[in-house]
Specification:
With 175 residues, the chain is mainly α. 57% of the residues lie in helices and 3% in strands. The chain has five helices and two strands. The mean pLDDT is 91.
């Protein structure tokens, strides 16, 4: 199962780089325009992906005793709040790079038994009070894909080519 999570972590990084490259081609006003989504703008959606990544990886670090050096890079990742100016947008790409690299390094460093470790939850009304690390890694995958899908729909409506929806064969583990 670990190999599958490594594949998804690598895909996640490439998908985020692809989205960032597409959004780099827009003006800051276009990225910040309210598009009617819950997170309003394209940059708001993209920032939310980063925030979710940092939050979930933080939960996993805590669940595994907090000694996960693979996630130490997250300490320097700042998730911006509110609208972004052009300078903040440029910094966002570097923040994604750090977070995505930490995610890959973290998953690569896991032992199979780590995937069963309990992660305490503060939602689901306490039922269940915890879920396995593997479940939270699945949540992280779903979260990024869901919000990149929202970005894709907005880009489609703007008639902007975007294709970051498939996992490239380069990510297939070597047998």
């Amino acid at each position: 199962m670990k190999e599958l999570f490594i594949t998804f972590a690598k895909y996640n990084k490439e998908a985020n780089k692809a989205v960032c490259a597409i959004l780099d081609g827009l003006s800051n006003d276009e990225r910040e325009k309210d598009r009617g989504s819950y997170y309003k703008s394209l940059s708001g959606l993209f920032v939310h992906i980063l925030g979710g990544t940092v939050f979930i990886l933080g939960m996993l670090k805590e669940a595994l005793g907090g000694s996960q050096s693979a996630l130490s890079a997250l300490e320097s990742v700042t998730v911006p709040q509110g609208g972004l100016n052009a300078e903040q947008w440029k910094a966002l790409g570097a923040a994604f790079e750090k977070a995505d690299d930490a995610y890959i390094h973290f998953v690569s460093s896991l032992k199979e038994e780590d995937l069963k470790a309990p992660v305490k939850l503060s939602w689901y009304k306490g039922n269940p009070p915890s879920v396995p690390v593997a479940f939270m890694l699945q949540q992280l995958i779903s979260h990024g894909n869901h919000h990149r899908g929202q970005i894709s729909q907005i880009l489609d409506s703007l008639k902007i080519d975007n294709d970051y929806s498939g996992i490239a064969p380069a990510f297939v583990p070597k047998l």
